[in-house]
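During the first year of the project, the team set up a workflow for recording each protein of interest as an amino acid sequence followed immediately by a discrete structure-token representation. This format lets reviewers and collaborators read both layers of information side by side without switching files. As required by the reporting guidelines, we include two representative entries from the current panel. The first entry is reproduced here exactly as it appears in our internal archive.
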Amino acid sequence: MIIAFQITNTTSDFNYNCFTQLALKYPTQQFIMLHQKNHVVKKELPSNIKPVKLKYAHNTGVYHSVLNQIQLRAYLKKYKVDFYFSSNESTIPVKGITKIVLIHQTKSIKQKQKFKKTNYADFLISTNETVHEKIIKTIPELKSKVNMIPYGVEKMEALSIEDSTKIKQAFTEEKDFFIAIQKGCSSAQVMVLLKSFSAFKKWQQSNFKLVIYVDEKQLKSSKKLLANYKYRSDVLLINKTEEYVALFGAAYAALFGGNETNFMELYQMAFRFKIPMLLPEDEHYNSIAKNAAVYCDLSEKAISDNLILLYKDETLRNSILENMKKQSEKLQWEDVSEKLWDWIINKKA
């Protein structure tokens, strides 16, 4: 059996995490990993996974989308694939190949007839309960085609006090800090965050700091926002992934700015390092993180109130951490991938 799977990155990607686990567990099976040229592929891939670089992306215009489908068909036929897993709902039709589409968000479930017309999948996998229910409610006849398999998480490895202290010494003058993921967010959103932190500082009266993770494009505009900001000495802007990863494990809590593309990475990191999350009030995030986070709208007052809550309410904080531990025990990638494998074998039979 030959399984092809397409990935979007190599950290939080559902396909990547599941199939690297399965490749190790089932060394006689063959796997083809399709990835974009800008995605970094880890060198330690199992020997039975063959990485194949795609030249064209499906989401960079009509011309490239057509070329993407042509190259995909060619690779699927070349490697005589039996199963093809994709996160792109407009999956291409190829005879003789079982096609599976992963649906992560409710907004991917478009108007009924359009969804049915563009989706050539033989089966669907919903990665959270909200999406699963929406698919069945919108298109009841797909009920037999949909299976709910949740996102997994890595085993928890919270930093030791010693390691956490070293990181704070290197970055935040040994002070505790929140880390806010604002990659892809607007200057207005960053400004709301800064005002929220101001309200927190006025209430808390200490040296608590704020680390803001932005991308290269945001760096210049974010620095301008800080130029006349009262608490600028307590704010650290970072835009390097290695700094983000190093700092995350030592954070007091993680704040998510609301750019959907960054959510699963935040979710994975929070569970890995056992860091409480402050997330936007949204059914999608709630369906995935459940009671392992605090939720609020992204207004200045709501964010500041919840920063204060996370800081002063130790009972709430401990409850969140305990909930994370319980969820983590049920959602290890090893167990999630085995659930996926059982489903594949069932479909093969």
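The second entry, processed by the same pipeline in the following quarter, appears below.
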Amino acid sequence: MGKVKVRKMAALFAMTSVVIFSAGCSVVEDTASRATDQLTDAASKELVRQACAPVQDGSIDAGELKVLSSIVGSVEGGGLPNEMVNVLNELADSGDKAPAALQERLKTSCDNATAQSEQ
């Protein structure tokens, strides 16, 4: 084999290696992206579950209101629907007693969030 042929084969091997390596990186990136999406989705569902649990019996008592108020900071930007975050913020600002209208809005937002997560 001549030097030119060896160089051509080395260049072809290098180009093939780059193509295979970049395709492998793409597969790893796609897998990591899917795993991140699944983790984010699971975390959002758990936050919805925690935020909606107190209102399932139809009312929010003082203890439940304190718990909801304490999680408001963690739910902002945490993948929850804005509708739910707004209601949770209003509940946190409502003091020691959650107004019935806010409780109903939270129940509606929980129903909407649950319906969206099942799609």
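For the second entry, the following points were noted during internal review. Residues 3-118 form one domain. Helices lie at 3-52, 62-75, 82-93, 100-118. Both points are flagged for discussion at the upcoming steering committee meeting.
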